[in-house]
Specification:
The chain is an alpha+beta fold. The chain is built from 5 helices and 13 strands. The strands form 5 sheets. It has a 4-stranded mixed beta sheet, covered by helices on one side. It has a 3-stranded antiparallel beta sheet with strand order 2-5-13, with no helix packed on it. The protein has a two-stranded antiparallel ribbon with strand order 1-11. A hairpin with a 4-residue loop joins strand 6 and strand 7 (195-196). The longest helix is centred in the first third of the chain and has 19 residues, at 42-60.
C-alpha cells in the first residue's frame, strides 16, 4: 500500500517532563504528544499545551517560519537524476557532483537474539527478538557523504563532518537508492510505493529491531553502558553538552559494536512505521514493523533532547513526508544498513 505523504495527526512521543525544552513539539496544530500523558498530571499538561500554542503562533509570524510541504521532486533529486545547473532559478551552486563518494565504512553486526524494549515506556513492552546479521554505517551519514551522493545538502548546521540533518524519511530512502546504484547494488526501495525489498543487495534504513540491537551492543541495561545516564556525556551529544547544535560525527566513544553517535547528535530514521502497541503483535524473527501507518520510527535521541531519549529502548516517531523550516527538523538524520552476504544468525 503506498505510503501517505500528506500531513496527518502525529502520534509522536516526547521525552517525559521536558515539553518546554523541545522545539520540535512547540506547534500550534495537533502535533502534541499523548502517549506519555499518564506520567504528567492534568494541570502540568494543560500548562505545557498553552505554552506550546502561544510559542508556535509567535514563531509562525517570523519570516520564513511557515510549515512547508515541498514535492519530493523539488526537494531531492530522483535516484537516476543529477542536480539542476547552477544557473537555474531553483538551484544553488553545487561544488560536488553526485557519484563521486567512496564507500563509507560499515561494521558487520552478528545475528543474534535479544530483549527488545524498555519496561519504563508505555509503547516499548520488552519482548524477545531475533535479528539476522547485517552491515551498518559506523557513523551517521555526514553532510559530505550526502552531498557527494545526491549533489545537495539540506542541513541547517553546515560542516562536512557534521551529520546531515533536515532530511525527511523520503530523502533518506532516496539517498539509500542512489548510494546503492553508485556501487552497482540492487536498490531496496520502490519510490512509487515506498516499499522496501529486504532481499535486495543495496542500502536501506535499519528496521527498528536492527537499530536497537546494534545500539545495545549486547547490553541489557537502559543504556549500552549501564542503567545510569551519568556517563552519557562520554558517548553522546545531548541537551546537556551539545552547546545547542549537532556536532561532527565520531568525536565521542563508540558503543560495544564500534558504532559512533548511536545515541544523541541526531535522531535516526528507521524503516518501520510507528504503532504504539506494535510490540504486542511483533514477529519474533526479523520484525519489520507494521504494514501501514502515518509516522515513521526515529531512534537514539538528539543534541537538543534529554538523556532519557538516548536510552536504547526509547521510541519516538515523526511524519515521513514534511520538512519544517523553523520547528526542529535539524534533529533528524540517519545511517544506512545492508544485509550481510550470508544472512547468518549466530
Amino acid at each position: 500500500m503506498p505510503m501517505d505523504m500528506r500531513y496527518g495527526r502525529s502520534t509522536r512521543r516526547t521525552p517525559v517532563g521536558r515539553l518546554t525544552q523541545l522545539m520540535p513539539d512547540r506547534r500550534a496544530d495537533s502535533r502534541v504528544v499523548h502517549e506519555s500523558e499518564h506520567r504528567l498530571n492534568n494541570r502540568t499538561m494543560k500548562y505545557h499545551i498553552v505554552t506550546a500554542v502561544l510559542l508556535s503562533v509567535a514563531l509562525s509570524l517570523l519570516p520564513g517560519c511557515e510549515r512547508k510541504a515541498p514535492s519530493d521532486a523539488a526537494h531531492a533529486p530522483a535516484p537516476n537524476s543529477h542536480p539542476t545547473s547552477a544557473n537555474s532559478n531553483n538551484s544553488a551552486t553545487i561544488s560536488n557532483k553526485p557519484g563521486t563518494d567512496p564507500k563509507a565504512e560499515m561494521i558487520q553486526i552478528p545475528g543474534g537474539r535479544f530483549m527488545m524494549g524498555d519496561k519504563d515506556e508505555v509503547d516499548a513492552k520488552p519482548h524477545e527478538v531475533s535479528v539476522s546479521s547485517f552491515y551498518i554505517d559506523k557513523t551517521l551519514v555526514t553532510q559530505e557523504h550526502f552531498q557527494k551522493v545526491t549533489g545537495a545538502n539540506p542541513s541547517r548546521w553546515k560542516g562536512d563532518k557534521n551529520p546531515v540533518e533536515q532530511v525527511r524519511w523520503s530523502d533518506a530512502v532516496k539517498f539509500c537508492n542512489q548510494r546503492s546504484e553508485l556501487e552497482g547494488l540492487q536498490p531496496c526501495y520502490d519510490l512509487k510505493t515506498w516499499q522496501c525489498n529486504f532481499d535486495a543487495t543495496g542500502y536501506r534504513l535499519p528496521t527498528e529491531a536492527e537499530w536497537e540491537y546494534a545500539c545495545r551492543g549486547g547490553s541489557t541495561t537502559a543504556y549500552f553502558f549501564g542503567d545510569s545516564p551519568a556517563k552519557l556525556g562520554d558517548y553522546a551529544w545531548f541537551d546537556k553538552n551539545s552547546g545547542g547544535h549537532p556536532r561532527p560525527v565520531g568525536q565521542k566513544q563508540a558503543n560495544p559494536f564500534g558504532l559512533y553517535d548511536i545515541c544523541g547528535n541526531t535522531w535516526e530514521w528507521c524503516n518501520d512505521f510507528y504503532k504504539v502497541d506494535y510490540y504486542e503483535e511483533s514477529s519474533k524473527e526479523d520484525p519489520r514493523g507494521p504494514k501501514e501507518g502515518e509516522n515513521k520510527v526515529v531512534r537514539g535521541g538528539a543534541w537538543r533532547f534529554s538523556s532519557e531519549s538516548c536510552r536504547s529502548g526509547y521510541r519516538y516517531n515523526e511524519s515521513p513526508g514534511y520538512a519544517d523550516v523553523c520547528f526542529g527538523y535539524d534533529i533528524y538524520g540517519f545511517r544506512c544498513v545492508k544485509k550481510a552476504a550470508s544472512g547468518a544468525r549466530n
